[in-house]
Automatic annotation (TrEMBL):
Record's subcellular location: Cell membrane
Name by which UniProt lists this protein: Proton-activated chloride channel
Chief localisation class: membrane
Organism expressing this protein natively: Pipra filicauda
UniProt keyword annotation of Membrane present: yes
Molecular function terms, GO-annotated: chloride channel activity
Listed PANTHER family: PROTON-ACTIVATED CHLORIDE CHANNEL, TRANSMEMBRANE PROTEIN 206
Its membrane topology: Multi-pass membrane protein
Catalytic activity: chloride(in) = chloride(out)
Length: 319
């Protein structure tokens, strides 16, 4: 006798209903969604960092434009352009002027008496640039050139009598004696020099040794100014003349300190090309990250739709 069982009463294994497979697929989908959300947050974080870097880069560039850095360079020369030395001796008289080399000055012969003047000199009268009333007398002497041979100029002045408590001779330095010689308006040239350069003094009864150095400064408009720096040493003169004297002797030496011309200029360290390259890199990274985020969102939506579709299929199968 055959036994017939009702098909509706047969209990199928769980594996045959497919309940395990949809659960496993749901877990994988959930992990993928969580991973996509993490990547999206990472994109937002990277975008915030990139915006901060853009702001910081622009701020640094503007700050460097406002505050240029001073640059100092040195150029070595063997011969300087002979400077001009303008003396304002007043009542004093030039007794001797000689060029010597290698820091050697021979002993004085008949100090206080006229000697040899072997320097190139010019005398000039001009109106005081500050008062425009007082006439000034200047003795302009060509300075040393050969710094390798330690060329120096040694001058001796004599002041017979003075009604002042202290005696000194004023002088100023300008960059080129040849420019003074070639100038068609020497009076105006000396006025400009006196207005632009500082003046110094050397006292009577001493030997003043002046060591010069040249500093050139480049301005923002491209012009160039010249300034002299000096180091002076003073040695007392021992007057060995037999008869007591009421006059004053002045001794001064001019020499270049070193063969280096110092050039000073302000430079802007901000490089616009570096900033542009950095900004391009940042924006490129932002666009790539935006594309990635867009694809991630599309992928999440696609996975969600697929999951919902499979869920409906499982429910239909169970039903």
């Amino acid at each position: 006798m055959e036994v017939h069982e009702d098909a509706s009463s047969v209990i199928l294994p769980d594996g045959e209903l497919g309940t395990t497979t949809p659960s496993l697929r749901f877990s994988k989908t959930c992990l993928k969604n969580v991973f996509s959300v993490i990547l999206l947050f990472m994109y937002l974080l990277l975008m915030a960092v990139a915006v901060f870097l853009v702001y910081q880069t622009i701020s640094d560039f503007r700050e460097k434009l406002k505050h240029p850095v001073m640059s100092v360079t040195y150029k070595e020369v063997s011969l300087y352009d002979a400077p001009g030395i303008a003396f304002y001796p007043g009542k004093a008289r030039l007794l001797s002027c000689k060029h010597h080399y290698y820091d050697h000055i021979p002993p004085l012969i008949n100090p206080g008496q006229p000697g040899h003047i072997e320097c190139t000199t010019q005398r000039i009268n001009y109106t005081d640039p500050f008062t425009n009333q007082t006439m000034k007398y200047a003795l302009v002497v060509q300075g040393p050139r050969d710094v390798k041979k330690k060329e120096l100029v040694f001058l001796q002045f004599h002041l017979n009598e003075t009604d002042q408590d202290f005696s000194a001779i004023d002088y100023l330095l300008f960059s080129s004696f040849q420019e003074f010689v070639n100038s068609p308006e020497k009076e105006k040239f000396m006025k400009d020099c006196e207005s632009s350069y500082s003046s110094w003094k050397f006292s009577g009864g001493f030997r003043t040794w002046v060591k010069m150095s040249l500093v050139k400064t480049k301005e923002e408009d491209g012009s160039e100014t010249v300034e002299f720096k000096q180091e002076t040493s003073v040695v007392n003169y021992i007057d060995q003349r037999t008869k007591p004297r009421s006059d004053q002797l002045f001794f001064v030496v001019f020499e270049w300190k070193d063969p280096f011309i110092q050039t000073v200029q302000d430079i802007i360290t901000a490089n616009p090309w570096n900033m542009i390259a950095l900004l391009c890199g940042i924006f490129l990274a932002l666009f790539k990250a935006a594309d990635f985020a867009k694809l991630s969102v599309k992928w999440m939506i696609k996975i969600r739709k697929r999951h919902l579709k499979r869920s409906r299929q499982v429910m239909n199968h169970i039903s």
